[in-house]
Amino acid sequence: MKLKKNLCLVLICTILIGMFLSKSVENYITPVKEGDELQVTRKQQHIEAMKGGANPNIGPTTIAKDFKVDKNFESHLPLIVIDIGKKTIPVTKDFKKVVDKNGNEDVIITEKKQDPYVKGNISIIDNKNYHNCLGDTPTEISNMKIKYRGNSSIKYKKKQFGIKMLDEKGNKKNVNCLDMGADNEWILNISMIDMSLIRNYMSYNLGSSMFPFTPDCKYCEVIFKDGEDYKYQGLYLMMEKIKQSKDRVDITKFKPKKDKVVSYLLGRDRINKNDLQLDTYGNQKRLTYGRLTVMYPKKKKITKKALNYIQNDIDKIDRVVYSDDKNEFSTWDNYLDEQSFVDYFLFNELFGNYDAGNNSTYLHKEKSGKLKMGPLWDYDGAMDNYPHELNNPENIAFQNHPWFDRLIKSQKYVNHLEDRYAVMKSSIFSAKSLDNYIDGVYQFIGNAGKRDWSRWKSVYGKNSRMKKKLDSQGYYVDRHRHNWPEEVQRLKDYFYMKEKYMGKGIEGFEKDTIDMSINAGSYKVVAIVIVFFTGVVLIRRKDMFV
User: Fold this and answer.
1) Position 275 in a domain
2) Spatial distance between the Cα atoms of 271 and 487, rounded to a whole number of angstroms
3) What would the pLDDT profile of 157-216 be if each residue is shown by its tens digit?
4) In terms of C-beta distances under 8 Å and separation of at least 24 residues, what long-range contacts does 11-16 make, across chains too?
5) What's the rounded Cα separation, in Å, for the pair 84 and 158?
6) Do 527 and 398 reside in the same domain of the chain?
7) Residue 541: its pLDDT value, please?
8) Is 444 a member of any domain?
9) pLDDT of 520 higher than 50
10) Which of 48, 234, 347, 455 has the fewest beta carbons under 10 Å from its own?
């Protein structure tokens, strides 16, 4: 009787332990914190300026045909005045399609030996009262050199610019542009393909809630000085450049003589023979797109030992992620930071950025940690802003990118995607929240947006590249809009359609996963059996000595 009673107690304890283990396994497979919230912690220009009394309606709404403005030109946005005299900025990049013996296509970038920069000076007018006039005393003046930047975008009429600040001797000089932290390298960006003028600003600010190293950016208006004349260039974003630094990508500085383990920053893009690009298992087997370039440590300072370390690190990740051995594949999260790889997938899928993962893609690793995705970059062609293929909101497409094509085979990864997306939908990433955000930015840009549309009417509206076209499936795709408000509305409409279908699309991954919960369940069963028989043995031994 006593033995039966003891056995019942053991059985009850075993059941309770089994329930606990079951819950523990579930938490392991889906490591999402309850009540997780996504918030933008950085100061956002459109919010801060409107609170400070900025008036978006000051200044003209049109620009003269010769693009000239005078010293009375005014704006609520900072003014960036660039003076390079009569010099012309050269285009030094060429793009060539190549086909290998197996018929695989690649685009190879070559750069001319010519220096892409020309020297000049830059003046920044950024008054605290948000009323900036071209005749005002600049708040910052510096020597600098400037070049065209971008890859495919370098061909566009509305150019983007890379700037390096210089002192009087031509050495690098750190300048705190628009209160974004002192640095010598800055970017002026807004591609002509984003006629809403909002995509990059919104993506970088909201994306910083997930990827804290994402570049800060602020709207400004750019004017080129030519002798006594001023020519209006348009609305731009003054942006941080992605680089290793305390105020940019804050990873440990490389010490060539001491470091055995290296912190590094990588970028995935097209093949460029001038870059320090890795040759790993993934690209050797044609499993991954393009090449990974070592952005930091810099090409001039990296040692052979450090390069081999990075090469071996990425090669190992390639082999694990693309392994046919389930046990080896299941160790992917020993090398990749799960949260950042989940967030990168979801953010880019929600924002329809299918160039990310292939081009303009950045990754970083602190030497004591795992490889992380980010910072984010290049969203002007996202959110249904590609001129050819129809963007079907019912489809999920980001799983077609390197590494992510395999991660979706992991039950653990898919569960995390589902739970994290549920958090996103109830936060700043809901379609309604994004609608309100776009409204706020649109109202803040104000007359500056009308001026930009007036300046670039040769490539906007009826002249844009978003004309009605046949896609590869034979469907007519018409994204053409006649004016700026219509372009902004098209951006809003995209998010409502995306939200309607995205959750179901993610759930569809479950049927193709390698169910690693089976392994976890096996451990649970073994643990329960051990607990039960240990209890029985202890009871029998106790009875022997009674």
Assistant:
1) yes
2) 33
3) 999 999 999 999 999 999 999 999 999 999 999 989 999 999 999 999 999 999 999 999
4) 11/532, 13/531, 13/535, 14/528, 14/531, 14/532, 14/535
5) 17
6) no
7) 54
8) no
9) no
10) 48
pLDDT of res. 153: 75
pLDDT tens digit sequence for 400-421: 999 999 999 999 999 999 999 9
- 455 pLDDT above the threshold of 80: yes
In a domain, 439, yes or no: no
Distance from C-alpha of 213 to C-alpha of 247, rounded to nearest angstrom = 8
Report, as an integer, the average pLDDT of 473-485: 85
pTM: predicted TM-score of the whole model, two decimal places: 0.87
Q: What is the mean pLDDT of the chain?
A: 88
How far, in Å, are 18, 37, 543 from residue 13 at the CA level?
8, 37, 19
Percentages (nearest 5) of helix, strand, coil residues in the chain: 35, 20, 45
What is the spatial distance between Cα 184 and Cα 214, in angstroms, rounded to a whole number?
Answer: 18
Residue 451: strand, helix, or coil: helix
Q: In the numeric block, which tokens belong to residue 320?
A: 């694990």
Q: Give the distance, in angstroms, between the CA of residue 254 and the centroid of all CA atoms in the same chain.
A: 24
pLDDT at 476 (0 to 100): 80
502 and 413 in a common domain: yes
pLDDT of the residue at 32:
43
Q: How far apart are CA 306 and CA 254, in angstroms?
A: 9
Write down the pLDDT at residue 150.
80
Residues of the domain holding 14: 2-25+522-544
- Which residues, at least 6 apart from 473, have a Cβ–Cβ distance to it below 8 Å? 390
- Cα separation of 403 and 423, whole Å? 24
Report which listed range, 11-15, 31-35, 226-230, 530-534, is most confident. Answer: 226-230
Do β-strands 175-176 and 217-226 pair in parallel, antiparallel, or remain unpaired? Answer: unpaired
DSSP output for 279-302: --HHHHTT-S-SEEEEEES-TTT-
Domain stop point among 240, 260, 276:
240
Q: How many domains, in total, are found in the chain?
A: 3
Place of tokens 């009826």: 462
Could you tell me if 473 and 526 are in contact, meaning their C-beta atoms sit under 8 angstroms apart? no
Looking from the CA of 488 toward its CB, the CA atoms found within 13 Å total 21
Question: Would you say the C-alpha torsion 316, 322, 328, 330 has a positive or negative sign?
Answer: positive
